Every structure is written in C-alpha cells, then in structure tokens.
Automatic annotation (TrEMBL):
The protein's name in its UniProt record: CTD small phosphatase-like protein 2
Domain (FCP1 homology): residue spans on this chain: 71-230
A GO term, aspect molecular function: phosphatase activity
PANTHER family documented for this protein: DULLARD PROTEIN PHOSPHATASE
InterPro entries named among the record's database cross-references: Dullard_phosphatase, FCP1_dom, HAD-like_sf, HAD_sf, TIM50
A UniProt-annotated Pfam family: NIF
Organism: Trichinella britovi
Length: 254
C-alpha cells in the first residue's frame, strides 16, 4: 500500500502532500474495517465490532451525533485538545497551588493538574457561536475527571468528548479523524498543540503553543480572537481561511 501511494505521488507532482496523507488514512481505515468485520448468520449483513484493543480505530462503531438545530446560534464546531492545550498535568506534587489533585476512579496513580490561564474565559467566549467538543489522546477516565472537576464542572461548554479509544494510532502517534464527528468539516475547527494529531485534516487546524504551566501565558486570548474572527467574517468554509492564515500544509510539504 505504501509503495503504491508513494509511486502515485512521485508520478503526480501536482498532487498535494496533505491529500496524500488523507488518501493513506482512507486506505488504512478501509483495511481496518475489513479486518474487524464478520458475517451475521441471522441477517446476512456485516456486523462491525469494537476491538478490545482500543488503540486501533474503527469508524463503524460510532453513532452519528445529532445534528445542530437549525435555530441554534452554533454556527461552527470547535474541537479542542486537552493536555498542553487547556491543561497541564504532572504525576508528582510540586508545591504549586495551581495544580489540583484529580480524583480518577480506579486509577493506579495520581495526577496534579493546572488549568491554562484564560481557559474559562476562552470557553465562555467561543461557546456562544461554537458547538464545543473535546478530542484528546488521554484516557477516558482521565479526561472525564479533568472536565468534571476542573474545566467544566457544570457541563456548560462541552457537548461531546472523544478520547484515546476514538483515535487512530499510527507509529505511536494518536491521530484524530474529524470525519467521525458527523459534522460539516467546512464549519469545523480543531485546536491542538500537536500537528500530527490532525494531520489528515490539516486545513481545519489551529496549532496552539503547547502549555507547560507558565502562569503568564496568554495564548488562549490569542486563540479567542481567531475564533471570533471566523464568526465576525462569516467564513463559509474555514479550511481555505485557516490554510491561508497559518499555512500549516507547508510544514508537511517541506
């Protein structure tokens, strides 16, 4: 498969590298679905089952999300990463009062987590016009604990959350496929500190500066302005807007 794709790109010099990545993931997902399907003896239809190994991705077991009501003010969808984007976690106490103990059910170790400066203001600001989702490579129990205990205890902001079992794992990288969300990708923005996380939707992405606990950080203030610029400009398709603004595709092409 890799040989075929590589040969295809070499003989098609105008074929964008980002499209090559998407093509690779398309073939890879089809292969995954085929490997994890079996025949239902009663109905004669294929039945797709979730693998016990949650590190692999199989889009067939995702139930499509409800559509956004037509009268809703939610014009766009914001998909947000967690670690190093909204919070920073440590496995040892460092004496900084900003780092709170996260109580995770059945956890074998403790986490001490701090919330990025301006996080509450950022979520409050964008949630008026964006349907906000969490998409993290962290475990489900960890992500739920951070949401419930720190960044959204009243469940005001996050409509849905996707975690490590929902990622594709490729060469030790957790990749977030936005197509599983069932949302219009022309209206979907993903904000993450790791560009490989959204490599198959590079033009939907905003690469945020990773946060490691700096109390003077104001990155989310900057992100807030970008999200509002999309709304204020009534952007029909966020992909050409973000592509021109950040030109992340050039990093892959280089």
């Amino acid at each position: 498969l890799l040989y075929f794709l590589h040969s295809f790109v070499l003989h098609n010099s105008h074929f964008p590298f980002t499209d090559f990545i998407c093509l690779f993931f398309l073939f890879w997902k089809l292969k995954t679905i085929k490997m994890n399907s079996n025949q239902d003896d009663h109905s004669g239809k294929k039945v797709f089952k979730r693998k016990k190994d949650n590190s692999s991705f199989n889009m067939s077991w995702f139930t499509p999300l409800p559509t956004i009501p037509e009268k809703s003010k939610k014009l766009y969808t914001a998909v947000l990463d967690l670690d190093h984007t909204l919070v920073h976690s440590l496995s040892k106490r460092i004496g900084d009062p900003r780092y709170k103990i996260i109580n995770i059910p059945q956890a074998t170790r403790r986490f001490y987590t701090a919330v990025r400066p301006c996080c509450a203001e950022f979520l409050e600001s964008i949630s008026e016009y964006y349907e906000v989702m969490l998409f993290t490579a962290g475990t489900t129990r960890y992500a739920n604990a951070v949401i419930d205990q720190l960044i959204d205890p009243e469940h005001k902001y996050f409509s849905y959350s996707y975690c490590r079992p929902d990622c594709a794992q490729v060469d030790h990288e957790f990749v977030k496929d936005l197509s599983i969300l069932g949302r219009d990708l022309s209206k979907t923005v993903i904000m993450d500190d790791n560009m490989m996380s959204f490599c198959c939707h590079i033009d939907n992405g905003i690469l945020v500066e990773p946060w490691d606990g700096d109390a003077k950080d104001r990155e989310l203030k900057t992100m807030m302005r970008i999200f509002h610029e999309i709304v204020d400009s009534n952007v029909e398709d966020v992909r050409p807007f973000l592509r021109e603004r950040f030109q992340l595709y050039k990093i892959f092409e280089d």
